[in-house]
Design goal:
This protein has 2 helices and 3 strands, in the order H-E-E-H-E. It has one domain. The protein is globular and about 35 Å long. The protein has 74 residues and is an alpha+beta fold.
Length: 74
């Protein structure tokens, strides 16, 4: 993911997601790309996102790229 930026993710209609690595939690998050871009800029590299923890249990999060949901798609 090192070459990806927030702007590139958004431009390709993708989204940034995270899931808790704690087996007993597995909480799932979808980041608001527009808000992140407003805060740190479109050129912010995904690889520079610092380690994050789950708000639910405090466990580490795994960050991944995913295809975004488009209205009207099945």
């Amino acid at each position: 993911m090192s070459a990806w930026t927030l702007g590139a993710v958004q431009a390709r209609g993708m989204q940034l997601e995270a899931s808790c690595k704690n087996e007993s939690c597995r909480h799932f998050y979808v980041f608001e790309l527009g808000r992140l871009i407003e805060t740190v800029g479109a050129d912010y590299p995904i690889s520079d996102i610092p380690p994050l923890t789950c708000e639910n249990c405090g466990g580490p999060l795994k960050i991944e790229l995913a295809m975004g949901h488009q209205e009207g798609s099945a």
